[in-house]
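queue> pop job 88
queue> type: inverse folding (structure -> sequence)
queue> payload:
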């Protein structure tokens, strides 16, 4: 029974094309993970391209078309990823100047890019204007001024959204909840600053307000948060149309046509553990779109185009991190109880999420079948720090030993993106797999890469 569980690859947690062969070896898209480690070493991220792409398509289908879905690049971005997103017809969100530069380097059409950030630099804003970015999501009064100046200097009119903080407590970790009042993003709805910001933008000759934005948080499972936020932001849209519509050159209807975008951000929760279920995006989307139509009708507004910005739900489940097990140590904890420490060759440098958010993961041996008895185990990395824990507590088979390959699934979002060079570990490679072929998307960082930054 336990052996079955230890060898199964739950399909709601693992990439769509992960399989265990008859000899116990796990393949992704037909590529055996031990072969990847033999060729490229471990740890290594392995990304299932077809899985990533099919999640793009499901999101597009759920939200009425690919143009309504912006992939949130912060989850994981390379030029190849930007090309996949482009080929699937999705739009793209960037949250920094360099994310924008990577997208542009991939040839991603600037008009389908949206730019985010609470403290965008002058350079970032100018690049948005000069590069023809689809819209900038405004986050502060200073930024309204800075962007208006950049657009004026370029003789351009920059489309923008105003980011609204609708005052909702998303049920997620405090650091990844973003729509409540006491945090750095957006303009407060409750205090009236969102209305003031929108008014100001409408008066600016070099900015064109095309709608409103909000984002309730990340890894959200309570879909009520999305619809409540939508309702509040629509309320603001109504207020804005009533107040500013009569002064608009094309009247209230013209302004309503102009403010046609309601961007509800990202946050769609995924399963990291067998016992969890991912948010049913198709069902949530259908419900959300119906509610938005209903609220708009109640307010006498034309139904806006709902856009979303998922990152994790597209990138997360597509990827696993493969490690090699090294040291195995049985440690006395209490009452003569033992805990087995399984050390792997990566750790908090390739996945900071457990240490930072208390995020939970599970692991499977991917180089063979296991059939040991379950023991209390902790999977730790190789960094010089006791908080370097990947899996705090799990019942794992007692036959795992040095040389076994252990893979952690659902590491495609915010793992490589938040990786570090702690202890001068180079970042692992990212290997893309598709139709039986492996290709290096990002190579491993070497000590030569680290030394090359030193100038003396
Ligand atoms: N849109 C905006 C404005 C955001 O701030 C974010 C995430 C997203 C979209 C994408 O959210 P997603 O669909 O991926 O949940 N590092 C954390 C997550 C931080 C999310 C920040 N903003 C983690 O590892 O869980």
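queue> result:
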């Amino acid at each position: 029974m336990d052996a079955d569980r230890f060898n199964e690859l739950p399909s709601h947690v693992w990439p769509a094309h992960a399989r265990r062969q008859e000899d116990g070896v796990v393949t992704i898209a037909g590529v055996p993970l031990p072969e990847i480690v033999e060729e490229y070493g471990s740890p290594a991220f392995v990304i299932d391209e077809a899985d990533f792409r099919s999640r793009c398509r499901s999101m597009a289908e759920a939200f009425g078309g690919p143009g309504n879905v912006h992939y949130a690049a912060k989850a994981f971005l390379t030029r190849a990823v930007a090309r996949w997103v482009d080929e699937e017809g999705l739009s793209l969100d960037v949250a920094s100047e360099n994310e924008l530069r990577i997208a542009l380097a991939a040839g991603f059409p600037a008009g389908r890019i949206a730019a985010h950030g609470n403290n965008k630099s002058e350079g970032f804003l100018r690049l948005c204007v000069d590069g023809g970015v689809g819209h900038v999501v405004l986050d502060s009064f200073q930024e309204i001024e800075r962007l208006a100046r950049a657009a004026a200097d370029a003789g351009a009119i920059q489309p923008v959204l105003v980011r609204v903080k609708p005052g909702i407590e998303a049920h997620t970790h405090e650091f990844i909840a973003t729509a409540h009042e006491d945090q750095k993003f957006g303009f407060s709805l409750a205090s009236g600053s969102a209305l003031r910001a929108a008014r100001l933008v409408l008066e600016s000759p070099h900015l064109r307000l095309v709608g409103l934005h909000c984002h309730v948080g990340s890894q959200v499972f309570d879909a009520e948060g999305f619809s409540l936020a939508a309702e509040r932001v629509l309320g603001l849209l109504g207020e804005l149309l009533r107040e500013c519509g009569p002064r608009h050159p094309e009247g209230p209807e013209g302004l309503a046509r102009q403010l046609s975008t309601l961007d509800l951000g990202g946050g769609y929760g995924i399963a990291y553990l067998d016992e969890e279920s991912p948010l049913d995006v198709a069902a949530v989307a259908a419900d959300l779109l119906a509610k938005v139509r209903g609220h708009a009708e109640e307010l006498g507004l034309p139904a806006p185009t709902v856009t979303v910005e998922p990152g994790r739900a597209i990138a997360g489940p597509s990827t696993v991190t493969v490690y090699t097990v090294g040291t195995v140590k049985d440690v006395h904890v209490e009452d003569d109880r033992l805990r087995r420490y399984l050390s792997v060759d990566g750790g908090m440098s390739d996945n900071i999420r457990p240490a930072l958010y208390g995020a939970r993961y599970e692991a499977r041996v991917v180089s063979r079948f296991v059939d040991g008895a379950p023991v209390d185990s902790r999977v730790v990395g190789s960094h010089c720090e006791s908080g370097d824990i990947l899996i705090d507590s799990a019942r794992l088979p007692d036959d795992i030993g040095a040389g076994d390959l252990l893979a952690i699934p659902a590491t495609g979002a915010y793992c490589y993106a938040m990786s570090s060079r702690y202890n001068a570990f180079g970042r692992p490679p990212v290997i893309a797999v598709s139709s039986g072929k492996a290709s290096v998307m990002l190579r491993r960082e070497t000590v030569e890469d680290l030394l090359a930054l030193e100038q003396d």
